[in-house]
Amino acid sequence: MANKLVIFFAISVVAIASAAAQASSPSAEVRKWDIFAGDWALSGTAQDAPTGSPYKVEWSLHEHWILGGFFMQVDQVWKGNGQESHALEILSYDPIRKIHASSGFSSDGSTWNLTARFQESIVMEESVAQNPEGHATTCHATFVFSTDRNSLSGTQECEEHGTRWTAFRVKGNRLRKGTSGL
Prior knowledge:
The protein is mostly beta strands. The protein has one helix and ten strands. A ten-stranded antiparallel barrel has the order 1-2-3-4-5-6-7-8-9-10. The longest helix is centred in the N-terminal third of the chain and has 22 residues, at 2-23. The radius of gyration is 21 Å and the shape is globular. It starts with a helix and ends in a 5-residue tail after the last strand.
């Protein structure tokens, strides 16, 4: 009986390890974020609020896979309107809710959460940002990539207290392609 128990235990351990190995590969859905992987230099115009003045912006992004390729980390620097802010964003895929999601954190204390949809060379994002005082802004962004995926244009439209405005219009290029992260 003891031998049968040991054999059963050994078979169970092998089966569990095999299942874990199969589950340890990032899904094709999370890999859709790969369109952003690499270093990007974007520029254009931005406006922080409906009553704010438009200004020129330079936006640099370093997007790379982390934690075995299950998540993408985005390190950002936004220069414009006489200020420089830094942000950290984590991109993911939720297999339970079947959504591409992101959470972001800015050096000014702002945070945001978004969901994204992918349609060939177009990425559409819906987000809610919250400033340090707790005021929420809802935004919709669209990023359109070139055929070779090495340049993009992006526009974000936002709404706050019933007033809509264009928060940014940017264009730019990938300076360096990212790695797979696996």
